[in-house]
Amino acid sequence: MKQFIYLFLIIILSCEKDDVCPETTQTTPRLVIEFYDLTNPDELLQVPGLYALGLSTDGMEIPINNEIVTTRSSIALPLKTDATETEFILYKSYDIVDGEVIGNPDKIKVTYDSKKVYVSRACGYITNFVIQAFVITADSDQWMINSDILTSEITNENDIHVKILH
Amino acid sequence: MKMTSMLKYCISCLIGCLSVCINLNAQETDPTIPDSLVVKNKYGLRVGVDASKLARTFLETDYSAIELNADYRLTYRLYAAGEVGNEERTTSTDYLNSTAKGTYLKAGVDYNMYTNWAGMDNMVYFGFRFGLSNFEQRLNSYTIYDTNNTTWGQTEVLESKDFKGLSATWLELIFGFKAEVLNNLYIGINVQLKGRLSETEPDNFENIYIPGFGRTFDSGKFGVGFGYNISYLVPLIKKAKK
Q1: Is the distance from CB of B161 to CB of B181 less than 8 angstroms?
Q2: Do A25 and B149 touch (CB under 8 A)?
Q3: Given CB atoms, is A140 within the 8 Å cutoff of chain B?
Q4: Structural domain includes residue A14
Q5: Which residues of chain A have a CB within 8 Å of the CB of B152?
Q6: What's the domain range around B8?
Q7: Are B152 and A121 within 8 A, CB to CB?
Q8: Which member of B93, B145, B208 has the closest CB to residue A28?
């Protein structure tokens, strides 16, 4: 009798965690880009002083969470979950000298379909994307020369979705 | 003449009764013959309602339900028992808000472990049920789970979506008490441990709450419940314990 009540309590208490979304849960994945050498397309090539900014629909530059200027060969960018395209500015050799931003900005535009994928009662839904187009806006001083969609379905951040040659 | 025959008849009856009584006394001293001082138990159909579900219907904004229950005494200890109900429940978490509603039926047996004193009719029982629920779920709203949402903001989807024609079955173990508080009026409390046998999985969603079964848990097919019943016995026959 007592044991039965204990069992009952244990079941109720142990399952409360169901209502809190664990941090280890795969969240809405970001777009993962890797940078390769234009002259040797199979070799990763680091981008000095890489820095990314989001572009809102009215052209405002939006800082990206946890995004800092570093020399690296890959970057993860959050896509808008309530739209079908997102624009970013990617800087090469970003720096601020005397209050002036120096570096080479290039603009990219990702067009995609999105679908809502059920995760759990605590986390609800995440968004997965299918890349339809990836465009680097041409300019006179373009550092990103070419791109290739490697994995069009964005379901996690372990895959490399887009390869950029520079 | 008529008077005397009447008197004779009465006396013979009285003697007959007394002789029976003497016989009874004689029998009590003989351990091989069972006690025939007969205590009759009430047998009948007991019908009731779950008061806790009614109370919650009035007290909680996200819950409404009614459950009728009945049991029928089969033998001294065994009862055929069942519940039928309708339940609607809205579940809200940080990222999800959904409502489940539907009807359910539970059927099984109760076994009374308690041996009553003469003239009392209480129960300490356990029982089993097979449960069946037909229900639907409405996803009212949800927020996209996105830990990188500081850049573009949270996306909340407010358009509701219906998942109809869902069903589930389960087995239930019940443990409870029933006490006769007034003549033929009973109150009872019970807890239920449930294991799901089957369920319709909604496409790109899950059964958050199953009417009759209760909330589901991520960890498995188990569920819990409780009931607080008020019921009335319609006594049909009185039988002695065999």
Answers
A1: no
A2: no
A3: no
A4: no
A5: 54, 62, 78-82, 86
A6: 1-37
A7: no
A8: B145
Query: Do the Cβ atoms of B148 and A78 come within 8 Å?
Result: yes
B99, B15: one domain = no
What DSSP letter does each residue of B97-136 carry, written as one string? EEEEEEEEEEEEEEEE---PPTT---EEEEEEEEEEEEEE
Write the pLDDT tens digit of every residue in B98-146: 999 999 999 999 999 999 988 889 999 999 999 999 999 999 999 999 9
ipTM for the whole complex: 0.82
User: What is the tally of structural domains in chain A?
Assistant: 1
Q: Cβ distance B20 to B208 under 8 Å?
A: no
**In the numeric block, which tokens belong to residue B184?**
């033929």
Question: Is A83 within a domain?
Answer: yes
| Domain shared by B1 and B83, yes or no | no
Q: Which residues pair with A26 in a beta bridge?
A: none
Nearest-Cα residue of chain A relative to residue B157: A82
Domain that includes residue A152, residue range: 35-165
> Between chains, do A126 and B217 touch, taking CB under 8 Å as contact?
no
